[in-house]
Amino acid sequence: MVLNAPMSSAALDKWIWVLVYGGLLLLSLGLFVKRSDAGLGWTLIGLGAVVALAGAVLVWVRSRMLEAPAHEQERP
After folding, report:
1. What is the pTM of this model?
2. What's phi and psi for 65, nearest 5 deg?
């Protein structure tokens, strides 16, 4: 299965980085907050895990995208 999405690979790469590292940051923040407020800590851990998982799914989507031909990549 190969996906051909209208989003450019550069834009998708930016979203991947933001989601993966943002999710991991939220997850680690949740681990620290959990010591003082268990409910908020687990919420942050859950949100961080979901966001990081969304980034991992985008990595899979990026691996299935068709590469643009060479003449289309060189736009001014």
Report:
1. 0.75
2. -75, 145
